[in-house]
Amino acid sequence: MKEKLTKNIGLKILSVILAAIMWLVITNVDDPVVPVDFRNVPVTILNEEEIAYLDQVYEIVEGETIDFTVAARRTIADNLAVSDFKVTADFAKLSDVNAVTINISCPRYGDDVTVIDGLYQVMKINREELVEKHFKVNVVLKGEPAEGYFIGEKTASTILRVSGPKSKIERIKDIVVEVDVDQVSGSFRTIEEPKALDEEGNEIDASNLKFSQKAVTIYIGVYKTKTINLQITASGKPAEGYVMTNIEYGPETIEVAGDDEALRSIQYLSITESISGATSSIIKEINLEEKLREGLVLVGENKTAAINITIEKKQTKEINIWPGDIEIRGKENDMTINFISTGPITIKLTGPAAELDKYDRTNLKPYIDITGYTTGTYTLDIKANVSGDVSLSNVPKVSMYLAKTESE
Q1: Residue 241 belongs to a domain with what CATH number?
Q2: 350 phi and psi angles, rounded to 5 deg
Q3: Strands 383-384 and 345-351, how do they pair?
Q4: Among 82, 164, 316, 407, fewest CB within 10 Å belongs to which?
Q5: What pLDDT, on the 0 to 100 scale, is given for residue 406?
Q6: 236 Cβ neighbours under 8 A, 6+ residues apart
Q7: Backbone angles phi, psi at 338, to 5 degrees
Q8: Residues 51-72: pLDDT tens digits?
Q9: Is residue 272 part of a domain?
Q10: Cα–Cα nearest to 384, from 353, 405, 358
Q11: Where are the transmembrane segments (predicted)?
Q12: Domain range enclosing 364
Protein backbone atom coordinates (compact mmCIF):
# COMPACT_ATOMS: atom_id res chain seq x y z
CA MET A 1 0.00 0.00 0.00
CA LYS A 2 2.81 2.32 0.94
CA GLU A 3 4.51 1.63 -2.32
CA LYS A 4 1.39 2.65 -4.21
CA LEU A 5 1.23 5.99 -2.35
CA THR A 6 4.89 6.82 -2.87
CA LYS A 7 5.12 5.50 -6.38
CA ASN A 8 5.66 8.34 -8.85
CA ILE A 9 5.52 10.90 -6.01
CA GLY A 10 7.17 13.58 -8.11
CA LEU A 11 4.55 13.34 -10.79
CA LYS A 12 1.79 13.52 -8.24
CA ILE A 13 3.21 16.70 -6.63
CA LEU A 14 3.65 18.26 -10.03
CA SER A 15 0.03 17.46 -10.85
CA VAL A 16 -1.18 19.24 -7.72
CA ILE A 17 0.90 22.31 -8.51
CA LEU A 18 -0.31 22.37 -12.10
CA ALA A 19 -3.91 22.02 -10.94
CA ALA A 20 -3.50 24.98 -8.56
CA ILE A 21 -1.97 27.07 -11.32
CA MET A 22 -4.76 26.15 -13.68
CA TRP A 23 -7.34 27.12 -11.03
CA LEU A 24 -5.69 30.48 -10.50
CA VAL A 25 -5.52 31.12 -14.23
CA ILE A 26 -9.15 30.17 -14.74
CA THR A 27 -10.23 32.22 -11.71
CA ASN A 28 -8.36 35.33 -12.85
CA VAL A 29 -9.79 35.03 -16.28
CA ASP A 30 -13.37 34.51 -15.13
CA ASP A 31 -13.30 36.77 -11.98
CA PRO A 32 -10.35 39.16 -12.17
CA VAL A 33 -9.36 41.71 -9.47
CA VAL A 34 -10.34 45.20 -10.62
CA PRO A 35 -10.00 48.71 -9.09
CA VAL A 36 -13.02 50.80 -8.04
CA ASP A 37 -12.84 54.57 -7.39
CA PHE A 38 -14.96 56.41 -4.83
CA ARG A 39 -15.16 60.22 -4.78
CA ASN A 40 -16.34 62.76 -2.17
CA VAL A 41 -17.16 60.14 0.43
CA PRO A 42 -18.28 61.86 3.69
CA VAL A 43 -16.25 61.10 6.79
CA THR A 44 -18.15 60.09 9.94
CA ILE A 45 -16.81 61.64 13.14
CA LEU A 46 -16.51 59.44 16.22
CA ASN A 47 -16.34 60.68 19.82
CA GLU A 48 -17.34 64.22 18.87
CA GLU A 49 -18.14 64.85 22.52
CA GLU A 50 -14.42 64.93 23.28
CA ILE A 51 -14.44 68.53 22.04
CA ALA A 52 -17.79 69.42 23.60
CA TYR A 53 -16.44 68.39 27.02
CA LEU A 54 -13.92 71.23 26.70
CA ASP A 55 -16.66 73.81 25.89
CA GLN A 56 -15.24 74.09 22.44
CA VAL A 57 -16.53 73.80 18.90
CA TYR A 58 -14.68 72.83 15.78
CA GLU A 59 -14.59 73.57 12.09
CA ILE A 60 -13.28 71.04 9.58
CA VAL A 61 -10.43 72.52 7.58
CA GLU A 62 -9.53 69.42 5.58
CA GLY A 63 -10.91 65.91 5.21
CA GLU A 64 -14.65 66.44 5.44
CA THR A 65 -14.91 64.18 2.39
CA ILE A 66 -12.24 61.97 0.82
CA ASP A 67 -11.45 60.08 -2.37
CA PHE A 68 -10.05 56.53 -2.36
CA THR A 69 -9.60 53.50 -4.61
CA VAL A 70 -10.11 49.84 -3.68
CA ALA A 71 -9.37 46.56 -5.41
CA ALA A 72 -11.69 43.54 -5.42
CA ARG A 73 -12.76 40.69 -7.62
CA ARG A 74 -15.22 41.76 -10.27
CA THR A 75 -18.05 39.76 -8.69
CA ILE A 76 -17.61 41.91 -5.58
CA ALA A 77 -16.49 45.14 -7.24
CA ASP A 78 -19.59 45.32 -9.41
CA ASN A 79 -21.76 45.44 -6.29
CA LEU A 80 -19.70 47.80 -4.16
CA ALA A 81 -21.40 51.02 -2.94
CA VAL A 82 -20.38 53.84 -0.63
CA SER A 83 -22.70 52.39 2.02
CA ASP A 84 -20.47 49.28 2.18
CA PHE A 85 -17.62 51.34 3.61
CA LYS A 86 -17.06 52.72 7.06
CA VAL A 87 -15.06 55.96 6.76
CA THR A 88 -14.38 57.48 10.18
CA ALA A 89 -12.27 60.01 12.07
CA ASP A 90 -11.99 59.35 15.81
CA PHE A 91 -11.73 62.62 17.77
CA ALA A 92 -10.52 60.64 20.77
CA LYS A 93 -7.27 60.30 18.82
CA LEU A 94 -6.82 63.96 17.86
CA SER A 95 -3.18 65.01 17.78
CA ASP A 96 -1.74 68.16 19.31
CA VAL A 97 -2.00 69.82 15.89
CA ASN A 98 -5.72 68.99 15.69
CA ALA A 99 -5.36 66.24 13.09
CA VAL A 100 -6.61 62.66 13.10
CA THR A 101 -6.09 59.72 10.74
CA ILE A 102 -9.12 58.74 8.64
CA ASN A 103 -9.87 55.02 8.84
CA ILE A 104 -11.38 53.19 5.82
CA SER A 105 -12.87 49.71 6.20
CA CYS A 106 -15.37 47.50 4.39
CA PRO A 107 -17.19 45.42 7.03
CA ARG A 108 -19.35 43.63 4.47
CA TYR A 109 -16.49 42.07 2.48
CA GLY A 110 -13.58 42.33 4.92
CA ASP A 111 -10.23 41.34 3.43
CA ASP A 112 -11.78 40.69 0.01
CA VAL A 113 -11.65 44.45 -0.53
CA THR A 114 -8.30 46.21 -0.31
CA VAL A 115 -7.65 49.95 -0.27
CA ILE A 116 -4.97 50.56 -2.86
CA ASP A 117 -5.02 54.36 -2.99
CA GLY A 118 -5.97 56.98 -0.39
CA LEU A 119 -5.49 54.79 2.65
CA TYR A 120 -3.39 57.31 4.56
CA GLN A 121 -5.47 60.47 4.82
CA VAL A 122 -6.13 62.84 7.72
CA MET A 123 -8.85 65.20 8.86
CA LYS A 124 -7.68 68.61 10.09
CA ILE A 125 -9.82 70.88 12.24
CA ASN A 126 -9.76 74.25 13.96
CA ARG A 127 -10.95 74.40 17.55
CA GLU A 128 -12.47 77.47 19.19
CA GLU A 129 -14.21 78.53 22.39
CA LEU A 130 -17.94 77.80 22.45
CA VAL A 131 -20.06 80.85 23.39
CA GLU A 132 -23.78 81.60 23.58
CA LYS A 133 -25.64 84.87 23.05
CA HIS A 134 -29.27 86.00 23.08
CA PHE A 135 -30.73 87.86 20.11
CA LYS A 136 -34.05 89.56 19.49
CA VAL A 137 -35.58 88.29 16.26
CA ASN A 138 -36.18 91.03 13.68
CA VAL A 139 -38.81 90.58 10.98
CA VAL A 140 -37.79 91.57 7.44
CA LEU A 141 -40.64 92.07 4.98
CA LYS A 142 -40.32 91.13 1.33
CA GLY A 143 -42.65 92.78 -1.18
CA GLU A 144 -45.51 95.28 -0.73
CA PRO A 145 -49.08 94.64 0.48
CA ALA A 146 -52.07 95.20 -1.78
CA GLU A 147 -53.13 98.77 -2.62
CA GLY A 148 -54.83 100.46 0.34
CA TYR A 149 -53.28 98.14 2.94
CA PHE A 150 -50.43 98.56 5.39
CA ILE A 151 -48.31 96.24 7.52
CA GLY A 152 -49.11 97.66 10.93
CA GLU A 153 -47.65 94.91 13.07
CA LYS A 154 -44.86 92.37 12.68
CA THR A 155 -44.17 90.33 15.77
CA ALA A 156 -41.76 87.45 16.28
CA SER A 157 -42.69 85.15 19.14
CA THR A 158 -39.35 84.66 20.80
CA ILE A 159 -35.80 85.67 21.65
CA LEU A 160 -33.29 83.18 20.27
CA ARG A 161 -30.20 81.75 21.92
CA VAL A 162 -27.43 81.21 19.41
CA SER A 163 -24.32 79.21 20.26
CA GLY A 164 -21.22 78.59 18.21
CA PRO A 165 -17.59 79.59 17.72
CA LYS A 166 -16.74 82.82 19.49
CA SER A 167 -15.38 84.47 16.34
CA LYS A 168 -18.58 83.72 14.42
CA ILE A 169 -20.94 84.75 17.23
CA GLU A 170 -19.11 88.07 17.47
CA ARG A 171 -19.80 88.67 13.77
CA ILE A 172 -23.57 88.42 14.22
CA LYS A 173 -25.28 91.82 14.05
CA ASP A 174 -28.89 90.67 13.63
CA ILE A 175 -31.01 87.57 13.67
CA VAL A 176 -33.79 87.95 11.12
CA VAL A 177 -36.69 86.06 9.64
CA GLU A 178 -37.90 86.98 6.18
CA VAL A 179 -41.63 87.08 5.42
CA ASP A 180 -43.22 87.49 1.98
CA VAL A 181 -46.02 90.09 2.17
CA ASP A 182 -46.37 90.82 -1.53
CA GLN A 183 -50.01 91.75 -2.35
CA VAL A 184 -51.38 90.49 0.98
CA SER A 185 -54.65 92.03 2.20
CA GLY A 186 -55.22 90.32 5.53
CA SER A 187 -53.41 89.48 8.77
CA PHE A 188 -51.71 86.08 9.04
CA ARG A 189 -49.24 83.92 10.96
CA THR A 190 -46.30 82.09 9.44
CA ILE A 191 -43.34 79.97 10.52
CA GLU A 192 -39.91 80.85 9.13
CA GLU A 193 -36.30 79.84 9.68
CA PRO A 194 -34.02 82.43 11.32
CA LYS A 195 -30.91 83.76 9.61
CA ALA A 196 -27.78 85.36 11.06
CA LEU A 197 -26.56 88.56 9.39
CA ASP A 198 -23.28 90.41 9.79
CA GLU A 199 -22.68 94.16 10.05
CA GLU A 200 -23.06 94.59 6.29
CA GLY A 201 -26.27 92.58 6.08
CA ASN A 202 -24.64 89.49 4.58
CA GLU A 203 -25.87 86.08 5.69
CA ILE A 204 -23.45 84.17 7.92
CA ASP A 205 -22.88 80.47 7.26
CA ALA A 206 -24.83 78.70 10.00
CA SER A 207 -23.25 75.27 9.55
CA ASN A 208 -21.64 75.36 13.00
CA LEU A 209 -24.17 77.65 14.68
CA LYS A 210 -26.90 76.23 16.90
CA PHE A 211 -30.21 78.07 17.31
CA SER A 212 -32.45 77.45 20.32
CA GLN A 213 -35.31 77.17 17.81
CA LYS A 214 -35.04 76.03 14.22
CA ALA A 215 -38.19 77.94 13.26
CA VAL A 216 -39.91 81.08 14.55
CA THR A 217 -43.62 81.93 14.54
CA ILE A 218 -44.37 85.44 13.22
CA TYR A 219 -47.62 87.42 13.27
CA ILE A 220 -48.17 89.94 10.48
CA GLY A 221 -50.95 92.49 11.07
CA VAL A 222 -52.32 93.83 7.78
CA TYR A 223 -54.68 96.83 8.05
CA LYS A 224 -56.65 99.11 5.74
CA THR A 225 -55.45 102.72 5.41
CA LYS A 226 -57.13 106.15 5.59
CA THR A 227 -55.92 109.73 5.02
CA ILE A 228 -56.96 112.25 7.69
CA ASN A 229 -56.25 115.91 8.47
CA LEU A 230 -53.79 116.95 11.15
CA GLN A 231 -54.88 119.89 13.33
CA ILE A 232 -52.40 121.47 15.75
CA THR A 233 -53.50 124.39 17.94
CA ALA A 234 -51.93 126.39 20.79
CA SER A 235 -53.35 126.61 24.30
CA GLY A 236 -52.63 128.98 27.17
CA LYS A 237 -51.00 132.42 27.08
CA PRO A 238 -47.36 133.46 26.78
CA ALA A 239 -45.61 135.28 29.61
CA GLU A 240 -46.63 138.87 30.36
CA GLY A 241 -45.34 141.18 27.64
CA TYR A 242 -45.19 138.43 25.00
CA VAL A 243 -47.59 137.39 22.27
CA MET A 244 -48.04 134.45 19.89
CA THR A 245 -47.98 135.76 16.33
CA ASN A 246 -48.02 132.61 14.20
CA ILE A 247 -48.29 128.82 14.24
CA GLU A 248 -47.08 126.58 11.43
CA TYR A 249 -46.89 122.80 11.23
CA GLY A 250 -46.50 119.99 8.77
CA PRO A 251 -47.59 117.67 7.39
CA GLU A 252 -51.19 118.84 7.15
CA THR A 253 -52.48 115.34 6.37
CA ILE A 254 -51.37 111.92 7.57
CA GLU A 255 -52.18 108.34 6.63
CA VAL A 256 -53.26 105.93 9.34
CA ALA A 257 -54.09 102.23 9.34
CA GLY A 258 -56.29 100.07 11.52
CA ASP A 259 -59.31 97.81 11.56
CA ASP A 260 -62.64 99.00 10.12
CA GLU A 261 -64.03 100.17 13.47
CA ALA A 262 -60.93 102.18 14.37
CA LEU A 263 -60.87 103.89 10.96
CA ARG A 264 -64.55 104.81 11.14
CA SER A 265 -64.02 106.48 14.51
CA ILE A 266 -61.42 109.02 13.34
CA GLN A 267 -61.82 111.91 10.89
CA TYR A 268 -58.85 114.02 11.98
CA LEU A 269 -56.08 114.06 14.56
CA SER A 270 -56.20 117.05 16.91
CA ILE A 271 -53.12 118.01 18.94
CA THR A 272 -52.82 120.90 21.41
CA GLU A 273 -49.46 122.47 22.22
CA SER A 274 -49.18 124.60 25.36
CA ILE A 275 -47.57 128.05 25.12
CA SER A 276 -48.29 129.02 28.73
CA GLY A 277 -45.53 131.25 30.10
CA ALA A 278 -43.50 131.11 26.88
CA THR A 279 -40.95 133.87 26.26
CA SER A 280 -39.50 132.54 22.99
CA SER A 281 -40.62 130.72 19.89
CA ILE A 282 -41.38 127.01 20.18
CA ILE A 283 -39.82 124.79 17.51
CA LYS A 284 -40.16 121.06 18.05
CA GLU A 285 -41.18 117.71 16.62
CA ILE A 286 -44.21 115.89 17.94
CA ASN A 287 -44.35 112.08 17.98
CA LEU A 288 -47.60 111.40 16.14
CA GLU A 289 -47.71 107.72 17.09
CA GLU A 290 -48.03 108.71 20.74
CA LYS A 291 -51.07 110.84 19.88
CA LEU A 292 -53.01 108.15 18.02
CA ARG A 293 -55.74 106.27 19.80
CA GLU A 294 -55.38 102.56 20.46
CA GLY A 295 -55.97 100.40 17.41
CA LEU A 296 -54.43 102.84 14.93
CA VAL A 297 -50.92 102.98 13.51
CA LEU A 298 -49.15 105.57 11.40
CA VAL A 299 -48.35 104.68 7.79
CA GLY A 300 -44.93 105.58 6.39
CA GLU A 301 -41.45 106.08 7.78
CA ASN A 302 -42.03 109.65 9.04
CA LYS A 303 -43.60 109.36 12.49
CA THR A 304 -43.38 113.02 13.56
CA ALA A 305 -44.89 116.41 12.81
CA ALA A 306 -42.79 119.60 12.82
CA ILE A 307 -44.29 122.60 14.63
CA ASN A 308 -43.14 126.23 14.77
CA ILE A 309 -44.98 128.60 17.12
CA THR A 310 -43.69 132.18 16.92
CA ILE A 311 -43.58 134.01 20.27
CA GLU A 312 -42.60 137.70 20.16
CA LYS A 313 -41.95 140.31 22.80
CA LYS A 314 -44.54 143.05 22.53
CA GLN A 315 -43.30 146.38 21.09
CA THR A 316 -44.57 149.93 21.74
CA LYS A 317 -45.43 152.56 19.15
CA GLU A 318 -46.44 156.18 19.75
CA ILE A 319 -48.79 158.00 17.37
CA ASN A 320 -49.55 161.71 17.77
CA ILE A 321 -53.04 162.92 16.90
CA TRP A 322 -54.91 166.21 17.12
CA PRO A 323 -58.43 166.87 18.37
CA GLY A 324 -59.63 167.21 14.82
CA ASP A 325 -58.65 163.56 14.18
CA ILE A 326 -61.08 162.33 16.83
CA GLU A 327 -64.43 160.92 15.73
CA ILE A 328 -67.36 162.03 17.92
CA ARG A 329 -69.89 159.29 18.55
CA GLY A 330 -73.30 159.74 20.20
CA LYS A 331 -73.47 163.47 19.44
CA GLU A 332 -76.97 164.95 19.37
CA ASN A 333 -77.86 167.31 16.54
CA ASP A 334 -78.34 170.31 18.85
CA MET A 335 -75.01 169.80 20.59
CA THR A 336 -71.83 171.75 19.83
CA ILE A 337 -68.30 170.75 20.87
CA ASN A 338 -65.40 173.01 21.65
CA PHE A 339 -62.10 171.22 22.34
CA ILE A 340 -60.07 172.61 25.18
CA SER A 341 -57.10 170.31 24.43
CA THR A 342 -55.00 171.63 21.60
CA GLY A 343 -52.77 168.64 20.87
CA PRO A 344 -50.77 166.85 19.95
CA ILE A 345 -52.23 163.96 21.94
CA THR A 346 -50.00 160.87 22.18
CA ILE A 347 -51.54 157.42 21.80
CA LYS A 348 -49.33 154.49 22.75
CA LEU A 349 -49.93 151.11 21.09
CA THR A 350 -48.50 147.78 22.25
CA GLY A 351 -48.25 144.60 20.18
CA PRO A 352 -46.18 142.62 17.67
CA ALA A 353 -43.91 144.77 15.53
CA ALA A 354 -45.49 143.60 12.28
CA GLU A 355 -48.95 144.52 13.55
CA LEU A 356 -47.85 147.92 14.88
CA ASP A 357 -46.41 148.80 11.49
CA LYS A 358 -49.94 148.80 10.08
CA TYR A 359 -51.04 151.78 12.19
CA ASP A 360 -50.44 155.50 11.72
CA ARG A 361 -52.39 158.75 12.20
CA THR A 362 -54.42 158.17 9.04
CA ASN A 363 -55.89 154.80 9.92
CA LEU A 364 -55.88 154.74 13.71
CA LYS A 365 -59.38 156.30 13.77
CA PRO A 366 -59.50 157.50 17.40
CA TYR A 367 -62.95 158.31 18.82
CA ILE A 368 -64.87 159.36 21.91
CA ASP A 369 -68.48 158.54 22.81
CA ILE A 370 -70.57 161.36 24.33
CA THR A 371 -73.86 159.52 24.36
CA GLY A 372 -75.97 160.91 27.23
CA TYR A 373 -73.68 163.83 27.96
CA THR A 374 -75.26 167.30 28.52
CA THR A 375 -73.89 170.83 28.58
CA GLY A 376 -70.62 171.06 30.50
CA THR A 377 -66.87 170.63 30.50
CA TYR A 378 -65.55 167.07 30.23
CA THR A 379 -62.28 165.16 29.98
CA LEU A 380 -62.93 161.88 28.18
CA ASP A 381 -60.89 158.78 27.38
CA ILE A 382 -59.89 158.42 23.75
CA LYS A 383 -60.40 155.00 22.20
CA ALA A 384 -59.04 153.60 18.93
CA ASN A 385 -59.99 150.95 16.42
CA VAL A 386 -57.21 148.41 16.97
CA SER A 387 -57.54 144.67 16.48
CA GLY A 388 -55.75 141.37 16.94
CA ASP A 389 -52.86 141.47 19.38
CA VAL A 390 -52.57 145.30 19.34
CA SER A 391 -53.87 147.25 22.34
CA LEU A 392 -53.63 150.75 23.84
CA SER A 393 -51.00 150.82 26.55
CA ASN A 394 -52.01 154.28 27.85
CA VAL A 395 -55.32 156.07 28.39
CA PRO A 396 -55.13 159.19 26.25
CA LYS A 397 -57.62 161.91 27.19
CA VAL A 398 -59.13 164.96 25.57
CA SER A 399 -60.87 167.93 27.27
CA MET A 400 -63.89 169.68 25.72
CA TYR A 401 -66.85 171.88 26.41
CA LEU A 402 -70.31 170.70 25.36
CA ALA A 403 -73.12 173.17 24.77
CA LYS A 404 -76.60 173.02 23.33
CA THR A 405 -77.30 175.12 20.28
CA GLU A 406 -79.88 177.86 20.94
CA SER A 407 -83.04 177.51 18.87
CA GLU A 408 -83.99 180.59 16.74
Answers
A1: 2.170.120.40
A2: -125, 140
A3: unpaired
A4: 407
A5: 66
A6: 274, 275, 276, 277
A7: -125, 115
A8: 989 999 998 999 999 999 999 9
A9: yes
A10: 358
A11: 9-26
A12: 315-404
